[in-house]
Amino acid sequence: MYANGAFKNPFADFDFSKFSSEFKLPVVNVETIVETARKNFATMTSVNTSAVESFKAIAQRQGDMVRAAMEDLSKHGSEVLAAATIEEKAAKQIDFVKKSYETAVTNSKELADLYSKGHTDALTALSARVAEVTEEVKAAIAKK
Description:
The protein is mainly alpha-helical. It has one domain. It is built from 3 helices and 2 strands; from the N terminus they run ββααα. The chain has helices at 16-21, 30-82, 86-143; strands at residues 2-3, 6-7. Strands 1-2 form a two-stranded antiparallel ribbon. β1 (2-3) and β2 (6-7) form a beta hairpin. α2 packs antiparallel against α3 (86-143).
């Protein structure tokens, strides 16, 4: 280490290029990585756009349902007030409750279908991209 009292670097005479050439490092194709990332980003953008459109459609439909319910309630109030007897008023209220329940069940099914469709579309797109990546990786491994 110390020749003639001076420090000598033990790595000064070591040839790193010869040492590193002994290792077989895989060749990385940057273009393939960039293309894969681009495809992944495009898929995620598409899925996110689809999700936003799905949520907008659901919100619009829910708004329509609430407006229709308020109109029905207003109409029902007028009908109950116009009824002559208590029996008529009770009958109108019972009919309104029955109709409201049936509408709520129908609306719930419709909203569930909209949610399900949105999720199915997103998962279909993601699954397709995963299948593509799997095939790309298989092809890359087969080349070597």
